[in-house]
Amino acid sequence: MTSSATSSPGPGRGSRRAAPVGHAAMRSANLSLLLRHLHTRGGRSRATLAQETGLSKASVTSLVSDLAELGLVQEGQVERRGTVGRPGTEVRISPLHVAGIGLELNVDYLAVCLRDLAGEVRFTSSVPMPYVLDATVADGRAYPPGLVLDRVAQQLAESLEVASREGLWVAGVTIAPPGPIDYEGGSVRVAANLGWTDVPLGEELAARLGPEHPALSLENDAKLSALAEAPRLARRGITDLVYLTGDMGVGAGILAEGRLIRGWSGFSGEVGHIGLDPAGVRCRCGRRGCWETMVGFDTVLAVLDEDDPARSGRLPMLDRLEHLRVLLEAGDPRLHERFTLLVDDLVRGIGVLVDVLNPQAIVLGGYFGYFADLLVGRVQSALDARLLAADGRVEVSGSALGLDAAAIGGAAAALERVLEDPLLAPPLSADASA
Amino acid sequence: MTSSATSSPGPGRGSRRAAPVGHAAMRSANLSLLLRHLHTRGGRSRATLAQETGLSKASVTSLVSDLAELGLVQEGQVERRGTVGRPGTEVRISPLHVAGIGLELNVDYLAVCLRDLAGEVRFTSSVPMPYVLDATVADGRAYPPGLVLDRVAQQLAESLEVASREGLWVAGVTIAPPGPIDYEGGSVRVAANLGWTDVPLGEELAARLGPEHPALSLENDAKLSALAEAPRLARRGITDLVYLTGDMGVGAGILAEGRLIRGWSGFSGEVGHIGLDPAGVRCRCGRRGCWETMVGFDTVLAVLDEDDPARSGRLPMLDRLEHLRVLLEAGDPRLHERFTLLVDDLVRGIGVLVDVLNPQAIVLGGYFGYFADLLVGRVQSALDARLLAADGRVEVSGSALGLDAAAIGGAAAALERVLEDPLLAPPLSADASA
Fold first, then answer.
1. Residues in domain HTH marR-type (chains A, B) (predicted)?
2. Are B356 and A356 in contact (CB under 8 A)?
């Protein structure tokens, strides 16, 4: 069990490389450079690769051949060019041999995602937690870890089976647990909504998956969601962003210059408890005016009748959201008033994040993302109005990935291992499904 | 004029290197690796260098010889070893040939710092702004840019002269201006306290310094101060920190994994205007409850008599602080009450930064740092009490560099250019003072 999916070895100030460059390291670094380039920019000819990366054509040819033997790239269709001359062959990331798995374990659902190196989702499944366990558990909000982990292991085993059947080697599995992570121990400290304390997730899952399982890592859902959204924004040159999760709690995943800002012990982005009003509502953390008390999903539910189906923790999250949507479209005045206040309070907290981090984009996830049509425009206008400098403008959008963001990000984080060190992938001559 | 002292070329997500590794790049990267290692860890033998960096002994010998020819390292005293055998010779950073200059241009003072590559401050001078210009300007708080820039250029010319006299090649000059920077244009947008708008600092100084001047960059004072404090903390393994400036305004310099977090347009750390109380005092920015209205230097001055010398903008900052110190030591009840409230309000804002960034250390600068003895212990206790997880503990300290922090950081930022690319330094055979 590695302690984190995405932590880098933590180089000292300014020292961007942890290791010296010898000939072997140079080859490995250039393999990684080429693979990342293809991964980010898409398929292109060897000549284009040489031109864009600054590597010699001979080097590109030799490196591409290595990457192909590792099953990481493949030859593609003839590249269309406007000029005369011999048409080039396109090299692109291969979807055939390498994949990563992400799994979000949430109080509402288990979502798993198997994604190949080319970015294609090859298998996904989502199970509403209440449905998983209602048969066996009396109190639907306090799930015994053993039962949940059995189900998680089953869902992982299904994904691994799909991978094996399709000849995909799985580079790793990243799990987003429903509470703060003990990165050292690979456990979840507390999952208040599940009634859990110090559950050794990594160890328990490793035991259930057997000795042959891929590397398992834990990472926070907001951080993984930020990683999942990153490629969409990176294509437009945006590498500084904050992803906001919106559920009972609120969390943030922060990318700066394309790098995940984890904080020194992995607890960056705990924005649900930033104090924005000393005279505000008392939070379950004991303090007053935490952002969560203003924008958490509970604040929406609180305006509904006690027996409203949206308030039922027994229903899957998506059903509850759809029910709210129906009420909103029917013009429910309590909800419309709530959403007006929500915009103001979202802007207050996002304003703090903008002042501290100066991101180029804010991505609204969770229930904020589900109601992006109601929130994005209004939040954007209010942020524009509070702006100090024109080039500090931040762009607000809804998550494109919905409730699967963390699982997709988990798969991406697992694939990072191969992008960083392509030589991890087993050569094609070996058993690709090992 | 380069647009920023410290921005990296902005690699895409995960792509940590911008360039491929060829043999020339490999040599340059390894020169940088060795030089940084010596810079961070101090002098050591070739054998120790090989062992610690993973480079072969032959490579180390050859690279050290290159660095010596560039005047970047020198042979030192015999290294004491507990074992028998031939005593090694120590290689260490040379203080003789390469330096950087930092200059802080502030409403209160101009401070300049010439620092050699070995970290020694070779020349420093600080001039209280009121003294600079009182003779020529009627209204002491609205200084014409031309006059100020003449004085800045004069101070820079003095430092360059010292450098030239001592045979130091100046790698660059970094200037911390008194307001938000237009990084593209190398200008200061607004310096409210000086009555400035859109002053093209870089261009104006370049013109005054003549064609032979070193590379000029602008960077924010809080960011430079964070860079200046970083080595002290890095020696204890701390690479995630927030430096807080305390003056009329409040700003933050953020380092994550040793890297400066600048934000996408350079405006990270604008923490003076984070809104912490919707019912709070109206800020000069127009909003209510900005952190600055609670902890800015004005809040301290406001409790004093109108004619108290500490309130006089005509006095140098240090004199005003010393006067406050005398009042505090005499038991002034208004100031003691103010400092009690200040601790609470500092903790509220720092709490937000801790939740968002999860730094390992908070460094108090400016007037917070000057009164570190009164603030650090109490802020630390209050932060410890609000902690959610034990390993999220953040350590509070006062800046060790006082009001010179930004100038020292500016010199360090200028020297970064050589640490990143040692081949920038002119070989010793050439004129070292060019």
1. 33-77
2. yes
- Chain A residues 54-93 with a CB less than 8 Å from chain B: 54-56, 59
CB-nearest partner of A14 from B36, B270, B359: B36
Domain-located, residue B129 = yes
Residues A396 and A418 in one domain: no
Element (H, E) at B50: helix B46-53
Instruction: Return the CA Rg of chain B.
Output: 23
DSSP element (H, E) containing B109: strand B109-116
Choose the closest CB to B258 out of A12, A36, A234.
Answer: A12
pLDDT-above-70 percentage for chain A: 87
- pLDDT for B81 equals 55
Domain, as residue range, for A304? 236-401
pLDDT band per the 50, 70, 90 thresholds, residue B430: low
Q: φ, ψ for residue B103 (rounded to 5)?
A: -140, 125
DSSP category for residue B427? P
- Residues B267, B395: one domain? yes
pLDDT tens digits for A297-320? 999 999 999 999 998 877 778 889
Question: Among residues B96, B224, B219, B102, which one has the least CA distance to residue B168?
Answer: B96
Residues A347 and A269 reside in one and the same domain: yes
| DSSP one-letter string for B212-247 | TPPPEEE--HHHHHHHHHHHHHHTTT---EEEEEES
- If you average pLDDT over residues A8-25, what whole number do you get? 49
The whole-number average pLDDT for the span A109-133 is: 86
Lowest-pLDDT choice from A268-282, B156-170, B176-190, B369-383: B176-190
**CATH at residue B46:** 1.10.10.10
**Single-letter residue type at B162:** V
B198 and B319 together in one domain = no
Q: The sheet that has B73-78: what strands, in order across it?
A: B44-45, B89-93, B73-78
Residues B270 and B385 in one domain: yes
A36, B14: Cβ pair inside 8 Å?
yes
With a CB cutoff of 8 Å and minimum separation 6, the contacts of B229 are B241, B243, B363, B365, B399, B400, B401, B405, B409
Give yes or no: residues A344 and A417 share one domain. no
CB B423 within 8 Å of CB B67: no
Of B37, B58, B93, which residue is a domain's last? B93
- Please tell me chain B's helix, strand, coil percentages from 3-state DSSP, rounded to the nearest 5: 45, 20, 35
Q: How sure is the predictor about A136, in pLDDT bands with cuts at 50, 70 and 90?
A: low
Q: What is the pLDDT of residues A35-51, one digit of tens each?
A: 999 988 889 999 999 88
CATH (domain of B376): 3.30.420.40
Burial of residue A328 (CB within 10 Å: 0-12, 13-18, 19+) is middle
Full strand arrangement of the beta sheet holding A73-78: A44-45, A89-93, A73-78
Report if residue A208 sits inside a domain. Answer: yes
Q: Does A179 touch chain B (CB under 8 A)?
A: no
Same domain, B329 and B212: no
Look at residues A365, A420, A412 and name the one whose alpha carbon lies nearest to residue A103. Answer: A412
Q: How many domains does chain A have?
A: 3
B157: pLDDT strictly greater than 70? yes
* Cα separation, A114 vs B125, whole angstroms: 61
* B239 with A13: Cβ contact below 8 A: yes
A302 shares its domain with A396: yes
Q: What is the mean pLDDT of residues A7-31?
A: 57
* List of residues 6+ apart from A33 with CB closer than 8 A: A53, A55, B15, B17, B20, B21
Mutate to test the interface with A, among B182, B223, B283, B355 (most CBs of A within 10 A): B355
| A57 found inside a domain | yes
Task: Indicate whether B208 belongs to any domain.
Answer: yes
Nearest to A257 among B11, B269, B416 (CB): B11
Tell me which of A151-155, A193-197, A330-334, B17-21 is least confident.
B17-21
